[in-house]
Amino acid sequence: MSVRGNILVADDDAAIRTVLNQALSRMGHEVRVTSNAATLWRWVAAGEGDLVITDVVMPDENAFDMLPRIKKARPELPVIVMSAQNTFMTAIRASETGAYEYLPKPFDLTELLSIVNRALSEPRRPKSDQRQDDQPDAMPLVGRSAAMQDIYRMLARMMQTDLTVMISGESGTGKELVARALHEYGRRRNGPFVAINMAAIPRDLIESELFGHEKGAFTGAQNRSTGRFEQADGGTLFLDEIGDMPMEAQTRLLRVLQQGEYTTVGGRTPIKTDVRIVAATNKDLRTLINQGLFREDLFYRLNVVPLRLPALRERSEDVPDLVRHFFKQGVSEGLQAKRISSGGVELMKRYPWPGNVRELENLVRRLAALYPQDEISADIIESELKTGEQPVVPGGNLIPDDLSVGQAVEHFLQRYFAMFAGDLPPPGLYQRILAEVEYPLVLASMTATRGNQIKAAELLGLNRNTLRKKIRELGVNVYKSSRPA
């Protein structure tokens, strides 16, 4: 049941004011609209309104400058902020200044109305003051696509919590950048950020690296050494490539997450730990669980807030912004300022980027360093990209365009059996293969239908309740694309 209220709308765009006025009035709300911040502030200061919807950029004042005054005068008043700027910093500032919710423009009207109903239904309670000092000035994440907007909004919600986050995504998508953003803009920003890559450390040294060791704990341990947990105390510990952690270290990590304490290698005294855990992987941990290579109970401990980073090919509209960003970085490092012709940019947007953002960054730096001209032509871009036209699988094999699903599975199974060097894989292969095919099938269908379960069920030929069950069992998490109002 929707709750009716008095809603104040401020936006310089007359069309948006009209749309919101009509939609909110149909729901039974009393609506007042204005095109300037001064009028909005006068209404708020007079005690009017149960909820505010405002654009960030107003003709007379920026909403972010006005929000602290609103929260001071009426801390219980929910404020929904909209913006066409659509950057990571916009989402962060909305969170820091106390906005109830942030929506990028163009927005989904149905989603906005749902947020309005939720805000009016919740008990009124003022948000705690957010610290705004010691904020980094650099832009950690770049992109204005719908996929990145969903990432920004989720990150903004996570900044003032210590919830464990699991970041998944292909290599080169920026998982460590996201982890650093969670730390540098969060409540632990004054503590250390410590990163450890599981794939880069010998298996027999991982426990010592994580938990430290005592003198004489093993051959070569001539002194006591602090581990990453101790180094990250009061801050954030980033466990990169968590899928490469050996089973024995997984068991110890699980114990730390459950008990909040650990012992050094060779030590006996428990040490309390105060760290936020952010983990990342480019592997499908569910597949590793089925193969007996990753603990299921540890997965659920780490996967409190799952965050999937899209591959660059899934957000190709962000390529121009990323190119400008990397060229600007190059200038700060002594490289010459460059730009790419419109034809070259279009070629880059159509390229699949198997190496993701990291590959794009390397290309931009190479262009800035090797080519003397101010504008890089489409011919140069085509020449640079021609060697990477076919997507590459982890084993380095090219995937032919005409490969069928059955042939792809056959290729996978051949490589899978080869991994065991003549031995047989663990029992249960039939169900594991079905699960591995089922997950991407459901995910792709939900993505194609923008999260609409009715359409996805029809596409798959499944009953809607069956699809819901599979989404829950498989842990499918889809970020809905925004639809213009």
TrEMBL record:
The chain residues annotated with the modification 4-aspartylphosphate are: 55
Location of the region described as Disordered in the Swiss-Prot/TrEMBL record:
121-140
What is this protein for, i.e. what is its function?
Member of the two-component regulatory system NtrB/NtrC, which controls expression of the nitrogen-regulated (ntr) genes in response to nitrogen limitation. Phosphorylated NtrC binds directly to DNA and stimulates the formation of open promoter-sigma54-RNA polymerase complexes.
Fetch the InterPro entries from UniProt.
Answer: AAA+_ATPase (IPR003593), AAA_lid_NorR (IPR058031), CheY-like_superfamily (IPR011006), Homeodomain-like_sf (IPR009057), HTH_Fis (IPR002197), P-loop_NTPase (IPR027417), Sig_transdc_resp-reg_receiver (IPR001789), Sigma_54_int (IPR002078)
- Which species is the source of this protein? Aminobacter anthyllidis
Q: Which NCBIfam families match?
A: ntrC
Residue stretches making up the Sigma-54 factor interaction domain: 141-369
Q: Which UniProt keywords apply?
A: Activator, ATP-binding, Cytoplasm, DNA-binding, Nitrogen fixation, Nucleotide-binding, Phosphoprotein, Repressor, Transcription, Transcription regulation, Two-component regulatory system
Please state what the protein is called. Answer: DNA-binding transcriptional regulator NtrC
Organism superkingdom? Bacteria
Task: List where Basic and acidic residues composition bias occurs.
Answer: 121-134
Localization per Swiss-Prot or TrEMBL: Cytoplasm
Could you tell me which PROSITE patterns the record lists for this protein? RESPONSE_REGULATORY, SIGMA54_INTERACT_1, SIGMA54_INTERACT_2, SIGMA54_INTERACT_3, SIGMA54_INTERACT_4
Q: Where is the Response regulatory domain?
A: 6-120
Q: Where would you say this protein principally sits, based on its record? A: cytoplasm
**Molecular function (Gene Ontology), one example:** sequence-specific DNA binding
